[in-house]
Write a structure and sequence with these properties.
Chain lengths: 411, 423
Amino acid sequence: MRRVVVTGIGLVTALGANVKESWEAMLAGKDGISEITSFDTSRYKVHRACEVKKLNFNGHIITKKPFTVYDCLLASAREALEDSGLDGYEPLRRDRVGVSIGTLAGELSLFEQRLRNHHLNKADGFDIEVALSYPPMTLSTQLAEEFHMEGPNIILINACSSGNHAISWAFDAIREGKVDAMIVGGSDVVPQTEFTHFHNLKSLAPEKCQPFDKNRQGLVVGAGAGVLILESMELAHRRDAKIYAEVRGYGLSSDGYHMTAPHPSGEGPMRAMEVALASAGLSYKDIDYISAHGTGTPLNDKMETLALQTVFREMAQDIPCSSVKSMIGHTMGAASAIESIVCCMAIKEGAIPPTINYETEDPECNLNCVPNQARECKTNYALNNSFAFGGNNASVVFGRVHLPVERGSVI
Amino acid sequence: MTQPNGAGQADVRKRVAITGIGIVSPLGIGRQEFWTNLVEGRSGVAPIASIDVTSYPCKLAAEVKGFNPADYLGDKGLKYLTKGTKFLTSAIKMALEDARLNTNGHFPEHAGVIIGSALGNYSQTTDYTYNIFKLGPEKLLPMASFDVALNSSINFASVFFKLKGPSRTISSGFTSSMDAIGNAFNLIRSGRDNLLIAGGVEQLSLDSYLIFLLQGLLSGSNNSGPELSRPFGRHRNGFVLGEGGYVVILEELESARSRGVKIYGEVVGYGTTYIGSNRFSLEEKISRAQRVMELALEDGSLSGESLDLIYANGNSSNLLDMIEARAIKGLSGDSSKKALVTSVKPLAGECYGAAGALQVVSCVLAMENSLVPPIANLEDPDPECNLNLVTKKALQIDIRSAMVNSLDPAGNGSCLVLKRNQQ
């Protein structure tokens, strides 16, 4: 089995148009929330979200909104590819580089835009442009076309754990030698449909996202994309690539319990984390940082705490465990891809972004959520949690690559 | 000893058995009805009944008829479920019972579900969108969004059967369910899982109809002549839409044997790669499609010569059928002369993301019955598709190994290789 490493990353969030801007803003504890501008919210009780404010279109910063899911995906994929240097590696076999992308809603907002202006009939929402962008698969094939990558193309539709599913699909394909590298990630914007869905389920916080706070009121939806370049360690070494981290393993599970509520015991997430640790060949004691699912809904954060307490036992209160959703919102299908990048940066930079808007301790969320202030922390191993609607759980473990010792022993 | 949902070990290579089949199809509900209609050539294609197509040119599709979901799911809460969710959950129920796995909430805890769907419940997502504009967001009750997410059919199935293993929705266009079955096969073979429900689901909707019509892919669109699916036919002009839920139970072979359950056959190889690039020339597309088949054969350590049957993608598309035929022709050895080639789509419709699973269940039943159903409607084969096509009547033949092809003209080619169970 080959080892799988991360050699490039790209980010688009409400806090910035690339990794550097987003990461620095996260470490500074900035809040990306603002009034929603992509649709009229006057008939809703909530008016705020973490929308993307600017994008880098091939070197040009564009602020004209709204951006599509593919716009965000393409910008972060381009950044990640350039960062990795993979594209410029001459002997690269392009038929052995694939694309796996997670999304919750695909280009639903294009259909909305069309229908918003003509809605006598539902059919008014369709034209050839909508028809061609409607199947989510087109996100991945467009990337393959843009970057001339000819390996397998996969879209994973797993709501808010889609990004981690996309990473684990790619991890298996590289590990088993089916491909050499994968462009992997997640992307979503804030379609009015999904906003309405969360709004009417009373899942949205009106003002701010406050994970693990006693007075947390819900999630804030966000837009964004995160893309990682995964490749075999062998290829990364051969082309002398910079390595952020190794993907050590993953765990998937289902609650098998409810369409929208998590199982209150946290038993499903607990199994996802335990399988992820076993798959990584690690003990809970090895983990230095947890990127929590931490949505800021009363149910999720309480349940996640219980699951963490079961898995991490005596260390549950101490391990830094933050949620960047407090700053960039819940970016749905992109969330776990973006948070995987946060884990890679924690490993590379030795810093951990905070959970902001944290005001009042909640005895039911007795964790070290890195309140309000980033901190330094040497991170060898990081765990990324994602627990989606439908009880669909996926956790991924990232680890530092100890180059001098392990180099040469892996091929 | 397999560690359920475990890490997967470096040297593990488990064998993967098929132990159950579930079908909700325009050709019938359940494997017996489906198979009888398939062999006897009774078509599921008829004038479209579930959506209003009076203002559009194409009038025919293969829709599921005579299906009562309450027979499988009970009466409770059915009104909140989409058509696709009912198809999928009922097909899973049938497959579990076929595999002699209890479905009354005492299901093996570690089982998971991996389903392919190109469009999922997207048509209900867009119904919800339409209602936001038509009725106003405040009029939409929380239950209105119960089952309207792209992947909510799979979530519902996982909740309904209390599954604790992975639940995953793969959406890779026309190859979605082939990629779902291939993924499930890989996860069991590597020792990570040992019992997975895999398959595909699609539902005919205004959305699916319009997106394929607008792209000119349907038979009879753009004044292209009569609406008729005739894969590899000289006058083929596009596909006729279908729908349905098709599911197999995949199980680690030793654990299936220890349960003493019937084993239909084994999945032995899977290959997938991108074939649909705009940059590829026709010759490149053909060689890529051939490469997919070779990848699956290599993965299963099978050479082309030993194939007895190829369940073709063959969906009556002008270009794609020719690409597939020439790719099969290019396989090494004499497999293209020897292997019989058939397609189920003239009768069951092109159900896009669920098509791979439709073909896999058809292929498993053909192996089981040593009988290859013919390609319906194929009167006049295209000389460019010069294959060992089964036409007119079913052929009795011993099928030891078979290949199932799934091709997306703008996406992946994916291919699965099956072997009959050796007693």
